[in-house]
Predict the structure.
Amino acid sequence: MRTRTAAMLAACVVALLCARTGAQAPTITEVVSQVSQTVYTDYLNNQLYTRTGDNRGNGAEHDLARTNIFNSFVSYGLQTSLSPFVYNSTTYYNVIGILPGATLPNEYVIVGAHYDSVNNPGADDNASGVAGVMSAARAMSQYTWDRTLIFAAFDREEQGLKGSAAWANAHASWDIKGMVSLDMIAYNPAGATHNTALIYGRATSDPLKNALSSAVNTYGGIACTLMGQLDASDHAPFEWNGFQAALLIEGAVWSNPNYHKSTDSVDTPGYIDYTYATSMTKGTVGWMADVAGLNGRRGPDPVPEFGSLAGMTLGSGFTFVIALRRFRTGTRRGL
Ligand SMILES: [Zn+2]
């Protein structure tokens, strides 16, 4: 009996040592793989009020969607706030989620999307981009980064970039290393045979545009065409303040038949391409990860394959203690 207990204890020690010493450093490919089409679809269909009849402009669904975005950021452990601004004597709110950097916390990388609509369901314009930002937050919050990540859902874009301009102007002194606006990333009518995207921005943003294009191709399998200045989305106020920024948008945007119509809804048959939108999001996460600098995992290391048992070393009692503590508490690193 005693011998058997000792054997079981030894097996546990070996398993825990293996879990600790066998863990590999995370890669950007691993981070990108955390972007899930199932989760993206849930955000777009069930959390952002994109059904026929919904209204995220001045309708009741506007605030309901904002609350869901806020709660998702909180659930991923981000420093989450409603950032107010006044437009036409009314106070509106951007939803801001921050993941502080581990080594360069005063350098920022931003992904944003506007959650307001033109008094319609705004499934593609622009719940598609917001679902991308929420998906990026979910994937990237599982890791630590050198630079600080900011996930932003802006309001009143349709009235002239009001929310993003307010936020960008208020943070013009920050060291912003890059900003990408996701705006209309889910309409892809020709399917995989026309799997393209457009990237807009000033010539001064060319380094960012090239890096984003490369990442969207590498991690999303989508070919991008680089375009010029277009001050029609939330990247523009960041360019006005001297930062590199760009708009990533679906290749078929200029022929979208439901643009700013009540039929911009997930209920419109054959309209939303969830696979394409997820790929656009993966590419954006790859870009953001490149710029932010992958530092480590935020939660416990994943248990490795048993094949790595052969390469295991049994040198350190401390390793066991650390592994056991992590195993017991399952703690996430606090913010
Ligand atoms: Zn619009």
Notes: The longest helix spans residues 2-21. The two ends are 46 Å apart (CA to CA).
